[in-house]
Automatic annotation (TrEMBL):
Belongs to the glycosyltransferase 26 family. TagA/TarA subfamily. This is N-acetylglucosaminyldiphosphoundecaprenol N-acetyl-beta-D-mannosaminyltransferase. Catalyzes the conversion of GlcNAc-PP-undecaprenol into ManNAc-GlcNAc-PP-undecaprenol, the first committed lipid intermediate in the de novo synthesis of teichoic acid. It catalyses: UDP-N-acetyl-alpha-D-mannosamine + N-acetyl-alpha-D-glucosaminyl-di-trans,octa-cis-undecaprenyl diphosphate = N-acetyl-beta-D-mannosaminyl-(1->4)-N-acetyl-alpha-D-glucosaminyl di-trans,octa-cis-undecaprenyl diphosphate + UDP + H(+). CDD domains: Glyco_transf_WecG_TagA. HAMAP family: TagA_TarA. Pfam families: Glyco_tran_WecG. It is an enzyme of class 2 (transferase). InterPro entries: TagA_TarA, WecG_TagA_CpsF. The keyword Transferase applies. Its EC number is 2.4.1.187. Pathway: Cell wall biogenesis; teichoic acid biosynthesis.
Length: 248
């Protein structure tokens, strides 16, 4: 299926518009964005992000304006189905990032790795280059910087001429930074990837495949880092909001 034959369909999950796409369709959509030129923002919406958007008008606006919002998270997939607007599958941000890196290696797309603790982006890019020979790394930069450095960082990224910018700054910082710097960056595709670099660099591990398929990746993360319990409280609140929305 060529890109121009594929039409994005969005479903509403608690006020956030989610694209009902498969992983393969998301990759084809990004391929089309790169062919068109920039800028396009890709967001990976899980339950935590949806709940944050309900409190944060700026984040809500950014997601509404994003070129692609994939259903990242078992909670979002469940919610869409429960609300009568099912999406075909979960499109995890990590999986989408890996698929794009694989395509970049064969298509000659340049990728910039931005974010994470010092040294993590570099390790992630090295691991990616080893896994996908032919991958062109446009540049790397950690995510520790002062607000006044934002413009110069964006200009440096633009100068490296990437086709794809992966930003691991955490939600919602990465989405807000990418949106604010979109004009300066002029990158065809910018995507917030959260903790993806940590996994690629070998600092953390993803949940076993069976837990991913069972929608229990959140439980694995909590077991690995109990301090996430505060963030995880968004999940039961999300479920209650969805159940309440169904009644109406």
């Amino acid at each position: 299926m060529r890109f121009e034959e594929f039409t994005l369909v969005r479903v509403d999950v608690l006020g956030v518009q989610i694209d009902a796409v498969t992983l393969a369709e998301a990759v084809r959509t990004v391929e089309g964005f790169i062919a068109e030129g920039g800028p396009h923002l890709v967001a990976t919406a899980n339950a935590e992000m949806v709940m944050a958007a309900g409190r944060d008008r700026e984040l809500a606006r950014i997601l509404a304006d994003a070129a692609l919002v994939v259903p990242d998270g078992a909670g979002v997939v469940w919610a869409a189905r429960h609300l009568g607007q099912p999406v075909p599958e979960r499109v995890a941000g990590f999986d989408l990032a890996e698929e794009l890196l694989a395509r970049a290696a064969t298509e000659g797309w340049r990728v910039f790795f931005f974010g994470g603790a010092p040294g993590i982006a570099a390790k992630a890019s090295e691991a990616a280059a080893a896994k996908w020979p032919g991958l062109t790394v446009a540049g790397v930069r950690d995510g520790y910087f002062a607000p006044e450095e934002a413009a110069s960082i964006a200009a440096a990224i633009r100068a490296s001429k990437p086709h794809i910018l992966l930003a691991a700054l955490g939600v919602p910082k990465q989405e807000k930074w990418l949106a604010a710097q979109a004009t300066t960056l002029a990158v065809p595709v910018s995507m917030g990837v959260g903790g993806t670099f940590d996994v690629m660099a070998g600092v953390t591990r993803r949940a076993p495949l069976w837990m991913q398929r069972a929608g229990l990746e959140w439980l694995y993360r909590l077991g690995c880092d109990p301090k996430r319990i505060g963030r995880m409280m968004a999940l039961p609140r999300f479920v209650m909001r969805v159940l309440a929305a169904k009644k109406h």
